[in-house]
Amino acid sequence: LFNSNNSSGTSDNTEDSKPFDVPNFVGISIDDASRQAAKLNLNIQQSEEYSKDVKKGYIISQTPNTGEVEKGDTINVVVSLGGKEAIVPNCVGISYEKAKKLIEKNNLKVGSRSYEYSSVYEEGVVTWQNPSPGTSGILENTTVDLIISKGKKPQQNNNNNNNNNNNDDPDTPDDPDTPDDPSDPDNPDNP
Question: For 101-128, what is each residue's pLDDT tens digit?
Fold first, then answer.
């Protein structure tokens, strides 16, 4: 009734327990790594952490990562949860110094800064930001670009302005309705 060939699927052959090179699971999905490990009769033990550099569900690192393993051994892998999301604070209307602290407190970074005149905000106050406050899907360490007020635009005092009605030039007639010169040959009213 029993076959003497050991048909149970196990083998006493020492070749099957021979050490082999550690497979590299870094950079592949945990699903693919689990399938490969099962084919090699290896176990996977996983932990998770956030990573802005490695896509969610993909392996960041493993231990051991080099050397040899045998069937039944365990490979410890760290699986990415993706980047950790951050809350984008509202920086408009506060000083640059306060905005910088608020951005850093939310695990973000100040990006580009530019300066513009503003009739609404005092000098040194943030007038605009990107991304906007409350934007979803923003990951930690993302930069927040700011425009900072230079204050009100200075009044230009230009005395050579041709639109000045108080023209003190004595060679220019004061009244623009001065009649044309009747001796002018280009005057159509001239006979």
Answer: 999 999 999 999 999 999 999 999 999 9
Residue 73 · residue 99 · CB < 8 Å: no
Reference 30, options 53, 57, 60; nearest CA is 57
- What digits encode the pLDDT tens for the residues 58-103? 999 999 999 999 999 999 999 999 888 899 999 999 999 999 999 9
> How many angstroms separate the CA atoms of 48 and 42, rounded?
19
106-109: long-range contacts, CB 8 A cutoff, minimum separation 24: 107/140, 107/141, 108/138, 108/140, 108/141, 108/142, 108/143, 108/144, 109/141, 109/142, 109/143, 109/144
